[in-house]
Amino acid sequence: MAGITLTLAGVAIGLEATTFNVAFLTDPVGPKAFPLVVAATLTFAGVRTLVRPRASVELPPPETLLRMGGAMIAFLAYAAALPWIGFFLSTTLVVTALARLYRGPWKGSLTAGLVLSAALWLLFVGLLSLPLPVGELWIL
Fold first, then answer.
1. Residues 6+ positions from 114 with CB-CB distance below 8 Å
2. Which secondary structure element, helix H or strand E, spans residue 39, and what is its range?
3. CA–CA dist 26, 30 (Å, integer)
4. Would you give the distance in Å from CA 3 to the centre of its chain?
5. Mean pLDDT score of the chain, rounded to an integer?
6. Is the N or the C terminus of the chain less surrounded, counting Cβ atoms within 10 Å?
7. In whole angstroms, what is the distance from residue 112 CA to residue 99 CA?
8. Burial (CB count <10 Å: 0-12, 13-18, 19+), residue 81
9. How far apart are alpha carbons 54 and 84 in whole angstroms?
10. First-residue to last-residue Cα distance in the chain
11. Contact 55, 107 (CB under 8 A)
12. Residues 120, 46: Cα–Cα separation, whole Å
């Protein structure tokens, strides 16, 4: 079942990526590059799973499943919060939450969140000149 799901997801993402059109001068690689890489990876993983499935699958312990669920909720909250509170604050919060989820100390978790947010902001905005959302909350 997992192999079929991965293969279908990869094909669907690949087909959707072929519909992206932007002028060549805007982006020489184009907006298709990343989705096509993801599509190829998913399709390969799906086909490989179909061809050589594992004999048995063991679920992780309940504590690990709870952490995985917490991480999924943190990333969904991040996606929801990003347009409202902006990249810097939402990234700081999600990194801090994930570090705490995996038993990081409060001070270190918050420091990691702040440092990673600042580094990514400088990379994307400063070096790559790619705009990141500031957040509707801060725009007057």
1. 92
2. helix 33-51
3. 8
4. 21
5. 89
6. C
7. 8
8. middle
9. 43
10. 49
11. no
12. 32
Pick from 21, 135, 1, 26: which is nearest to 78 by CA? 135
Distance CA 47, CA 43 (A): 6
pLDDT tens-place string over residues 70-88: 999 999 999 999 999 999 9
Distance, CA of 32 to CA of 80 (rounded, Å): 24
Helix, strand, coil share (%) of the chain residues, nearest 5: 70, 0, 30
Give SS3 for 29: coil
Q: Judging by beta carbons within 10 Å of its beta carbon (0-12, 13-18, 19+), is residue 88 exposed, middle or buried?
A: buried
**Which band of pLDDT confidence, cut at 50, 70 and 90, is reported for residue 29?**
low
Could you tell me which of 118, 127, 136 has the C-alpha nearest to residue 81?
136
Pairwise CA distance, residues 129 & 134, whole Å: 14
3-state secondary structure at position 22? coil
Q: What's the rounded Cα separation, in Å, for the pair 29 and 131?
A: 18
Q: Which amino acid is at 120?
A: L
